[in-house]
Predict the 3D structure of the following.
Amino acid sequence: MEVRILGPVEPTVPPKPAQILAVLAVECGKVVPVERLIDLVWGEGPPPQARKSLQVHISSLRRAGLPVEHRAAGYVLNADPGTVDLHAFRRLVASAGDEADLRVRAGLLDEALQLWRGTPVVFAQTLDVQRLAAAEAWVDAELALGRHAGLVDRLGTFVAEYPLAERLRGQLMTALARAGRRADAMRVFRETRKVLVDELGVEPGEQLQQLYRDVLEGARDSRRNYLPRDAGDFTGRDRELSRLLDSDGGVWWIEGPAGVGKSALAVHAAHRMADRYPDGQLFVDLHSPSGALDALLRAMDVPSERVPESAEERAALWRATVGGRRVVIVLDGVTSVSEVRPLLPGSPGCLTLITSRSRLCGLEGVRRIPLDVLGEDEAVTLLQRILGDDRVAAEPGQAKEVARLCGYLPLAVRITGARLAGRAHWPVSKLVRRLSDERSRLDELVADDLAVRAGLELTYRALDEDARRAYRVLGFLGLPEVPSFLWAHLLDEDVLDQLVDARLLDVIGSARYRMHELVRLHARELAEAEDPRSEREDLVRRAVIAALSTVDGLTEQLFLAVPRMQDSLGVLTTAARPTDKDAWFAREEPLLTRLVERAAELGLAEIASQLAEVLVFAWFGLRNRYEAWERSHTAALEAVWRTGDLRLEAVLRCSLGQMHYKRDNLVEARSWFETAQTLFVNLGDRHGEAVAMNGIGMVCRDLGQYPCALEALGRARDLLEATDLEGVAHAHYGIGSIKRELGDDQGAFETLRLAEAVYRQARSRRGEALAARGIGLVHRARGELDLAEDHVRRAHEMVAGTGDELLACYTAQAWAKVLLRKGLLEPAERLLRQALDGCRDVGDRFGEALVRRTVGEWRLAAGDHAGARTVLTELLPVWNDLTLPLWRARTLRDLGAVHARLGDVAGADRSWDEAASLFTRLGTRERGEVRQWPAQFGLAASRLSR
């Protein structure tokens, strides 16, 4: 049950029991002696039977359900103090006193005051003093929050209740003055003076008189608004702005790189909150910090003759001047904590917004707001507000590209918007073309007095020489990010921290740094202007060596036709190796690719080519990263062309041929290999010629051009016999697989077993598995399914130990097909699902098509003839795209079987007829099986037999 005594007593009981209950409630949980109860309830003239009357009244309280209990010394209200409004009031007031957040403090005090419903029946004077103190504290909090306009009416009610409370009247004057009601504020002072003189015979205190003088002088915001003009097109920063608008004052440090919009946010927020800080809205530009304190004191109308000479005394006068006032101060362009410390007001009712390119360090009680660039949508919206909806709506894609080329930096977007706004005849696409040239982009980002370069220059010149050099180094490298395996060999971490503190560099993750695009362009400009060319090139060379030192230790033996063909240019033995190779390369691939391109741009052809090649054997070739493979090699090849190094050109052409072969671009692959072969022959490089011939042989094999393939692979085998075991094994494997296709099973066995042995001698686990799979395929073609399963299972198990997921897809498919031939559909299906997912994950088009064809065969075996027809029919154009006639023929053969099962004799005949024609032209083993197909399904001999 709740007990309320801050007004009429509740629950409602007769007057005397109500007084007794109120006394017990004040001392809730404590024993009140009988004599004290009698004295408080009846005063100095208690009735003769007071004790008995007390007992009667206590009984009535108990009948009302109140927990009043008798103790040896008196009575106690045995209840939780939280159920008594007085104790709830005191608890709320105490909590408010401990609360630093003005909004929370005001809310707690308001909640406490709302508990009062009138005059208490006991201890009225004492409790009223507590209420007055709480009311004054609540008004202080509300004034500090700038809620003066809504405060006046309720404050007037308090003044009417406490007419002699001088502080309360001063608060009412302050609220009226801040609400623009200066005349009413002066009227309150006159009324206060009359009441004090008439009732107490005293004049108002000095504080109230000073307040009157301030009001009389009109010391209000109209004379103290020094803020720059607010940006009418201010865009974004909703979260940061909400934090400021919801604040109760204090000091805020807004940090970020040049041009990110720090000043715009601070000024915009100050304008939005101007009515909450009516005693002044001040702005100090600390890019030129001299005289900052003097400027602030002048802004607050302090006469120059009162300004002391020493900096310490001026700072003290500044704090005294704004003490008790509501002022918002923007300190723009702060470079250090020591610079700003004397400028901070001591009053909790002030709001100080500091903008700085430096990171906050060593300033107590300050809240931090870090700013980054805008999001894409926000940047486009800013451009739209500057230009108008029509021009952006007409070219939305170009507007997004402008925002991207500006790096989403607000200053850069604002400059491009201003330039376009001043050139109504320019389409947005014209500026996109001009910004696309990195060399001149900073030149384009200038409009009147706005320039991205100027802001960056100011920050750069404030750095020491070591930090300036690091800035130029990172800019010239031209990389999107700089991880520790690179910078650790180039720069000192302490210097990088200086760039981070200056907001020229961002930390992203552990020991990893990123430079904004426009900042990078500026740094590169400076490097090209201030550092010798030889130093710049040496820097990139060292970065490539650092990358090589890490990547070279991660290479693997791949069963590529093209082996590594370049000698190491030297690595750093101190390079660390990543523990999770896949995760490391997935993160670093764009950076490493860009590093190859950067080295190539500078003409460092040899080292660019080496890094490109190493990446194939560490990552690109292993995970089918074709785009990065092509980008890196194309860049390196262009650099090599400029040097005239024909051997290096041939090496890169071979690698690009291998890339196109793996992408199933067979015709293009052959062209690359043939050009490389010609170059190697002209150079007299027999090993290089053999590598190119191996590539040509594999391409011709897949194209079904078997005589050409056998000739090329035979030539490669002969040239490599004594110099490259893995290359010899690869040639043997190619020859053996061709003999299998041509039906020369004995020759295939001999050659593939020889390939397996040579692969084993070369310690190529992948090659050995590949050869074992090839032998298994010969056994399967002969119907020797147990032997076939032994080989393909062994191949699959070997591949599992290498971590080669793609090769595992091929061994899984081969094993699944053997199981399918054995009638074991369920395990075959599991393997096929695994293989199909794996091929799709790495984008292997041939592998995916091969597995899908086997899925079609599985559906046929499972009796799902319609499903088989769908799968196999969909594959026919795929084989055309891949230029693989043999696999089209095999799919047509299977499709004919499906048609036969469905009773579609004409469809079977058409499919088998085309398949027979292709097998005959290619000369493969299936050409001898053609006449058997109709008979297998009980069909009459078709024209196939004619």
Summary: The chain has a mean pLDDT of 86.
